[in-house]
Amino acid sequence: MSCFIELLREHQHDFMHHYDNQLNHNKRQAINALLSCKTAEQRKMSWCCAHCNHQAQHPLSCGHRHCPQCQHQTTRKWLQRQQQKLLPCHYFMVTFTLPFEFRALSRYQPKALYQTMFKVVSNVLKGFAKRQFKANIGFTMVLHTHRKN
């Protein structure tokens, strides 16, 4: 079992006492899924041997996208597929974070804000590569959010 889930189980009462008023529905749903993953509270999968008729039941996993128990295998397979697609060149990951002051704007004008953010990031990366390496670069940008707008 994941150390994270063990810690969450062990300190759930204190955690909820301190952060209960800060948890939205999605966060509560994630916590509940992780805490019930592969436990007696989950539905069970039945296995039966056709030769000896031995039967066993195993609790199902929660399948939540943030669960370290459920998503480890999925993540590993996805990573292997992505690595097979890599070109024979150097890769770098650069993360740009939207400043806190703009987050409220992202709720009301997400398209305009994110288009502007992508344009600024593009100019920064291209300008940096041109100045530092005298090179034209290619890149892929992905918008990663933690909640629905």
What topology does this entry show?
Blueprint: H1 3-10, H2 12-19, H3 25-36, E1 44-48, E2 55-59, H4 68-84, H5 103-108, H6 110-133
Antiparallel strand pairs: 1-2
How would you portray this structure in words?
By secondary structure, this protein is mainly alpha-helical. Helix content is 50%, strand content 7%. The chain contains six helices and two strands. A two-stranded antiparallel sheet has the order 1-2. A hairpin with a 6-residue loop joins strand 1 and strand 2. It starts with a helix and ends in a 16-residue tail after the last helix. The model has no long low-confidence stretch (mean pLDDT 85).
What best-fitting shape do the alpha-carbon axes yield?
flat
Radius of gyration, Cα only, in angstroms? 22 Å
Proportion in helices: 40-55%
How are the strands ordered across the major sheet? Answer: 1-2
Q: Helix- and strand-based class?
A: mainly alpha
Q: Order of SSEs, N→C?
A: HHHEEHHH
Supply the number of helical segments: 6
Indicate the mean pLDDT. 85
The biggest beta sheet is recorded as: 2 strands, antiparallel
The counted number of beta strands is 2
Gap from first CA to last CA: 33 Å
User: Uncertain spans, ≥5 residues at pLDDT below 50?
Assistant: none
Q: Give the amount of beta strand, in percent.
A: 5-15%
Structure described in brief:
With 149 residues, the chain is mainly alpha-helical. It has helices at residues 3-10, 12-19, 25-36, 68-84, 103-108, 110-133, and strands spanning 44-48, 55-59.
Notable characteristics:
149 residues; two-stranded antiparallel ribbon; 50% helix
